[in-house]
Amino acid sequence: MHLARGGGGDPGSWLWALGALALYALISYALAYRARTRRGSGHPGHDALHDLKDREEPQSPRQRLLSRAAMLGGAGATVLVALSTSGVLRVVAAGATAVVAVGLWAYYDHRTENPVVRGR
Questions:
Q1: d(Cα 98, Cα 117) in Å, to the nearest integer?
Q2: Model pTM greater than 0.70?
Q3: pLDDT in tens, 9-46
Q4: pLDDT tens digit string along 90-111?
Q5: Per-residue H/E/C for the chain
Q6: Could you tell me which of 107, 76, 94, 71 has the C-alpha nearest to residue 19?
Q7: Which long-range contacts (C-beta less than 8 Å, at least 24 apart) are formed by 25-31?
Q8: Is 18 left (phi over 0), alpha (psi -120 to 50) or beta?
């Protein structure tokens, strides 16, 4: 409740939280860019941005919900780690949390990918 009132002890903690969220987005984009490059996309940067918003491959509503929940949960965990730690530990812990969260999200999306689409 203390953070909700805006009375956080470290005034720079919100900047760290935004930085952690940006790190999470950057890692997500890099993984999508790498996947698009490996698939031979003509415009991997544009396609990677599009993939972060909405995937071309059809997903069932349940798979889409779980994928977005994993994505948002990972971002939330990264921000919480950045808000709850300080010093060098903040940088290491937020970075590690972001890498693990994006890895789990990418693994889930890979495992639920349609095999017909995967063969493209």
A1: 27
A2: no
A3: 566 777 777 887 788 788 878 877 887 788 788 888 88
A4: 889 988 998 898 888 888 877 7
A5: CCCCCCCCCCCCHHHHHHHHHHHHHHHHHHHHHHHHHHCCCCCHHHHHHHHHHCCCCCCCHHHHHHHHHHHHHHHHHHHHHHHHCCHHHHHHHHHHHHHHHHHHHHHHHHHCCCHHHHCC
A6: 94
A7: 25/52, 25/75, 27/98, 27/99, 27/102, 28/52, 28/71, 28/102, 28/105, 31/102, 31/106
A8: alpha
Decide: 71 and 105 in contact? Cβ < 8 Å: yes
> Which structure tokens are listed for 74?
């990972």
Q: Which of 22, 75, 25, 46 is nearest to 56 (CA)?
A: 46
Number of Cβ within a 10 Å radius of residue 96: 12
pLDDT band at 2 (very low <50, low <70, confident <90, very high): very low
Residue where the block lists tokens 């889930």: 108
- For 48, the token pair is 């990677």
